[in-house]
Design goal:
The complex is a heterodimer of chains A (115) and B (109). Chain A is mainly β. In chain A, strands 2, 4, 5, 6, 9, 10 and 11 form a seven-stranded mixed β-sheet that branches. In chain A, a hairpin with a 5-residue loop joins β5 and β6. Chain A has no helices and eleven strands. With 109 residues, chain B is mostly beta strands. Chain B has no helices and eleven strands. In chain B, strands 2, 4, 5, 9, 10 and 11 form a six-stranded mixed β-sheet that branches. Chain B has a five-stranded antiparallel β-sheet with strand order 1-3-8-7-6, with no helix packed on it. The radius of gyration of chain B is 13 Å and the shape is globular. Chain B starts with a strand and ends with a strand. The chains are: A mainly beta (115), B mainly beta (109). At the A-B interface, β4, β5, β9 and β10 of A face β4, β5, β9 and β10 of B.
Chain lengths: 115, 109
């Protein structure tokens, strides 16, 4: 079964700065997903990160704001750029534990507060 | 476009049975999943239906009707620890999983 480590677990950031979130998986996976969960809301898919190709962003999310790296099959980073208070959210990395069963496994999330 | 609809809130008493419905409209469909999330925690997988019918896992069951674009999660013998948010989610085109808005379940003694 997959184990996902996310760093940082939480941070308080100043408006206008950028923060990079790291996601490390203990097994090789093809697809990694980045979600955002604003307080009291559902999970919104930001992008799909595949190794060796550009990330695929969902409507409403752009690479300039949320650049993603995927240097290998076990690691990905998401940067939240030029942050504003509206970016205060939990950011979650996830992978399929078993795509045939549709089971997504999530990291513990990175809780960002932007002042 | 893609959309999933589920009730925002359900309240039930301990020991009771509760059903959370989900209707969906998506481009591409592989299956319907259900996730549980306690406050402050990450979502955890409960069940998946790729085909029509009922899947049972302990106290939880999930149902899917692809022709009706409808599914439900059934929780039996409710316990206080079942108080949480429950999300239906569709794995669709590109093997991406899109989540519904979530149903907040309150279990009362």
């Amino acid at each position: 079964s997959a184990v996902i480590s996310q760093k940082p677990s939480r941070d308080i950031c100043q408006r206008g700065t950028s923060l990079t979130i790291q996601c490390q998986v203990d097994s090789q996976v093809t697809m990694m997903f980045w979600y955002r969960q604003q307080p009291g809301q559902s999970l919104t898919l930001i992008a799909t990160a595949n190794q060796g190709s550009e990330a695929t962003y969902e409507s409403g999310f752009v690479i300039d704001k949320f650049p993603i790296s995927r240097p290998n099959l076990t690691f990905s980073t998401l940067t939240v750029s030029n942050m504003s208070p509206e970016d205060s959210s939990i950011y979650l990395c996830s992978v399929y534990r078993d795509r045939d069963t549709g089971e997504l496994f999530f990291g513990e999330g990175s809780r960002l507060t932007v002042l | 476009g893609q959309s999933l609809e589920q009730p925002s809130e359900v309240t039930a008493v301990e020991g009771a049975i509760v059903q959370i419905n989900c209707t969906y409209q998506t481009s591409g469909f592989y299956g319907l999943s259900w996730y549980q999330q306690h406050d402050g925690g990450a979502p955890t997988f409960l069940s998946y239906n790729g085909l029509d019918g009922l899947e049972e896992t302990g106290r939880f069951s999930s149902f899917l009707s692809r022709s009706d674009s409808y599914g439900y999660l059934l929780l039996q013998e409710l316990q206080m620890k079942d108080s949480a948010s429950y999300f239906c989610a569709v794995m669709g085109g590109g093997f991406k999983t899109i989540f519904g808005a979530g149903t907040r379940l309150f279990v009362k003694a």
